[in-house]
Amino acid sequence: NLNPLIAGAIGENLVVNEIKKLSDDYILINNFSLALDTPLYYKKDKSRIHSIQIDHLLISKAGIFILETKNWSRRSINTANFRSPVAQINRSSHALFVLLSRRNVNLKKHVWGANPQIPIRNIVVMINKKPKGQFKHVKIKTLNELKAYIEYFDPIFNDNELNKIYIGLISLT
Q: For tag attachment on the chain, is the N or C end more exposed, with fewer CB atoms within 10 Å?
């Protein structure tokens, strides 16, 4: 019965505390917000993206993790009264991918002769219960599943490239 803003802040703080358990090879940006001078067209729902707000942007040697935190009750999970966190994270991921592609973060070429793409992984973190089912391009994880899921991915970038990705993201703001 908490106020939704308070519940959200508590949930986001719990996610930050969980991320702090990761090694120092991760860079966390909380409340990554970006207003776009020129809106991006989002073909999936034939709309324009004017801004994005990401609860937690986690930059790692395995790529970028977009984390959207939801501290919802079981009843809230099963109601259609809320904006879909899956739709929200998909829009943010699309915008981030397009903007980073335009930024042309200069990473070391692969031995096959091409610049590697920066993987962007989308996670909705449910503080309590999570809905049944799976969603395309978005993983739904509980707070207890988050750390192991993030650590599952092998590093593909070195320290220098990790820093370039971070600078590329910061330069967007």
A: N
pLDDT digits (tens, 9 = 90+) for 58-108: 999 999 999 999 987 666 666 656 678 999 999 999 999 999 888 777 676
Question: What is the Cα–Cα distance from 90 to 104, expressed in whole angstroms?
Answer: 21
Rounded distance between C-alpha atoms, residue 57 and residue 54, angstroms: 7
Residues contacting 99, CB < 8 A, separation 6+: 34, 40, 172
HSE, CB side, 13 Å, CA atoms: give it for residue 113. 0
Helix (H) / strand (E) element for 102: namely helix 85-103
**Residues 71/10, Cβ–Cβ less than 8 Å:** yes
State the Cα–Cα distance between residues 49 and 144, nearest whole angstrom: 32
Position 70, amino acid: K
> Which residue in the block uniquely carries the two structure tokens 């192991």?
148
The first and second tokens of residue 166, run together, are 């971070």
In sequence order, which residues have a C-beta less than 8 Å from that of residue 81 and are 6 or more positions away?
A: none
pTM of the entire predicted model: 0.90
Tokens of 29: 């940006």
Element (H, E) at 22: none
